[in-house]
Amino acid sequence: MADIAADAILSNAEMAAADRATIDSGAFSGPALMENAGAAVAAAALARFAGAARVHVLCGPGNNGGDGYVAARILAERGVVVCVYALKPPRPDSDAEQAARRWAGAVETLDALVPHAGDLVIDALFGAGFSGGLPDPVKTALVRCRDAGCPVLAVDLPSGVNGDTGEGEDAVQCAATVTFYRKRPGHLLFPGRTLCGTIETVDIDVRAAEPPRTWQNGPALWTLPRHRADTHKYARGAVAVLSGPRHGTGAARLSAMGAQRSGPGAATILGHPDALDIHAAHITSIMLRPLGDDPLAALQALKGLGAVVLGPGLGDFALARRLAPAILIETEAMLVLDADAITAFADDPSPLFEAARTGGAERLVLTPHAGEFARLFPDIADGDGGKLAKARQAADRSGGIVLFKGADTVVAAPDGRAAINANATAALATAGSGDVLAGIIAGLAAQSMPAFEAACAAAWLHGEAGRRAGSHAIAEDIADALPAVFGEIGG
Ligand SMILES: NC(=O)C1=CN([C@@H]2O[C@H](COP(=O)(O)OP(=O)(O)OC[C@H]3O[C@@H](n4cnc5c(N)ncnc54)[C@H](OP(=O)(O)O)[C@@H]3O)[C@@H](O)[C@H]2O)[C@@H](O)CC1
Ligand SMILES: Nc1ncnc2c1ncn2[C@@H]1O[C@H](COP(=O)(O)OP(=O)(O)O)[C@@H](O)[C@H]1O
Ligand SMILES: [K+]
Questions:
Q1: Which residue from 181, 236, 307, 395 has the highest number of Cβ atoms inside 10 Å of its Cβ?
Q2: Which cofactors are reported in the record for this sequence (predicted)?
């Protein structure tokens, strides 16, 4: 079986399929995989919590509990004082039942659990097989762990966190989580990401059944454009940003600044003359052009146009409704649709989505935050499934790349590929930061980077720039940090 990239993310079902495929291939048995998993948990407990007075292992009825019994046995063999508690006995004839039989000590009910501050709790109640809400005895036990203030080490996932969505309102905050083979979406989506604490991903000899379609976003996922030594500014591609009115020009400037610093040869702001006067007082290397009576013609007149940013601070919904489909159908440029230009299509997105399909080959990138997402895709926003599934549904419907912003930004393509971004910090939660991001996407797309890759790379670079700029950065600082980030990763 071919192995998959280290940054691949598997859903609960994909992980279970990998487990089955590994067992069916004859390479490893279920009990052998469980032994590996439990041994990894025991090793993490010894390495991270060596001074624990006692280790309480809470076991559920499935294989997650099975891993717990294995870890308990190995820790006890190493001389650790271990107490085991079960919610229910393991499922009959399961690997977990075998593992439980090899645990020689007592098994108490969860209500016997009395953890103390110097103890360690190993949470092996539920993992990849969990859905719905936690049973009351589990909630009570987890509250006791929290109140005792002892660290919790989660097996695979903190119990109560849904591996596919990251949802998990009753889960306890864990100090660390040991997961197996590849991460689940719930390790990276909030609140799961926070609840996991430090995540350790260990190889337990599982091999994937299918090629992945979800990844943790990072440089392994895309290749940045490189400039040939003999290039010139038009060969490097050009970005156009549509400006808002005189009293709302800042957002377009921030997009243009993000675009410019992402490597294209030129960035131009187009707007009404009174808005351009304001821009002229602020900027030097960004070009300015009047929008005129025919905005499409003004765009088409730009040499080497590769991407257009439409929306930041735009204010003019009618212009967005007219221009977005025209850009997709009548130009070759990539369209990054953000902010007001997303809201402009809230009542009737079909002309946009039709144009995205007519324009072909992933020419549209939508960059909604949660509020804009709910305006454009109200039924998807209200529906079941987490942020990853919602972003995928939106991409499928729109025919464009959907970059669903937030602390756990998800980028999804109509063909099902998706990436979860995990390097961004709260430094980005500052006005105008999304405008810079839209510009970075356009800057990369103008250099012929495909839309999905451009959106993923932009989200990651934006996150790195935010880190570098520091927790009190403003949007301009995020843009200013970009050249150093590109320099560091060799772009
Ligand atoms: N994949 C791999 O390669 C490997 C995986 N391994 C391990 O297996 C784990 C997955 O095991 P799993 O599939 O048995 O699921 P698990 O998380 O134990 O939960 C299932 C049990 O919980 C129950 N249950 C669910 N929701 C509930 C609720 N709301 N309230 C109450 N009950 C609920 C559910 O009940 P049922 O739905 O069947 O009635 C069932 O009894 C994985 O996380 C990892 O630790 C390793 O051993 C080695 C290799
Ligand atoms: N807590 C956070 N951690 C990481 N990134 C964040 C956080 N909050 C916001 N962001 C990112 O900051 C940007 C904010 O964009 P947006 O909401 O459009 O703001 P604006 O319209 O002011 O530019 C998005 O890229 C979003 O993903
Ligand atoms: K668990």
A1: 307
A2: Mg(2+); K(+)
Q: Ligand 2, residue 409: give the atom nearest the CA.
A: 27
Residue 343: Cβ within 10 Å count? 18
Ligand 1 pocket member 137 (CB < 6 A)? no
87 lines ligand 1 (CB under 6 A): no
Structural domain contains residue 6: no
- DSSP-assigned beta bridge partners for residue 124: 59
Residue 420 lies in a domain: yes
151 & 283 share domain: no
If 0-12 CB within 10 Å is exposed, 13-18 middle and 19+ buried, where does residue 406 land?
middle
In this structure, the answer to whether residues 236 and 145 fall within a common structural domain is no
From 160, 195, 211, the end of a domain falls on 211
Distance (angstroms) between ligand 2 centre and the Cα of 434 equals 6
Q: Is the CB of 85 under 6 A from ligand 1?
A: no
Instruction: Provide the domain limits for residue 19.
Output: 12-211
Residue 223 shares a structural domain with residue 205: no
- The single-letter DSSP state of residue 155 is E
**Which residue stretches of the chain have pLDDT < 50?**
1
Among 182, 211, 240, identify where a domain stops. 211
Is 62 annotated in a binding site? The answer is no
Q: What is the predicted pLDDT for the residue at 2? A: 56
Query: pTM (2 decimals)?
Result: 0.97
Give residue 24's pLDDT.
95
- In whole angstroms, what separates CA 163 from the centre of its chain? 13
Contacts of 399 (CB under 8 A, 6+ apart): 353, 356, 357, 364, 414
Identify whether residues 154 and 246 lie together within a single domain: no
The CATH number of the domain holding residue 165 is 3.40.50.10260
Which atom of ligand 2 is nearest the CA belonging to 437? 25
pLDDT at residue 355, rounded to an integer: 98
Q: Point out the ligand nearest to the CA of residue 195.
A: 3
Q: Flag whether 466 is marked binding.
A: no
